[in-house]
Amino acid sequence: MNAFKLVPTVLACALLAACASTSKSTVDPAADAGGAGSGGAATGGMGDGGMGSGSAMGGAGSALGGPGASQENRIVYFEYDRFDVKSEYEAVLQAHGRYLSGNPGARVRLEGHADERGSREYNIGLGEKRAQAVKQVLLLQGASADQLATVSYGEERPAVVGSDDEAWSLNRRVELVYGP
Length: 180
What we know:
Layout: H1 2-18, E1 41-43, E2 75-77, H2 90-102, E3 107-113, H3 120-140, E4 148-154, H4 165-171, E5 173-179
């Protein structure tokens, strides 16, 4: 269990180092797009096209953005029962937006998740709102709508199995998954 206590500390340190950028973006915490049905709710399409090649960020992205980003830089965590993107993720999402802007063939799926509290339907909707909030930030950073797809898994795919604050905090997330 001590390993789980170390994970948030390591993530926080990595995010603090990543947030050294001085540029700012505006995130509308009320960015709510659409509801969700039962099961995984999907919006947008992955479309055809490759990963893109060559950009100012390098062909495979950088440490912060793109498919070459570390695992920590491809997950955005949320507060309990919230879907507004925290300012600590600005630099990471800016890097992903720049990568997508420079690589029009690149596609990313934004997978929204929730912790186990709340009904299944509520958590599907919350996961979708979280994915849509990250999508809005990426659009503001230069990504195009056809590069972004959203899906909500609600509580169905936990990152950590458990019923405590640590597990819940790691399950409230959006994962950026690059693919064709």
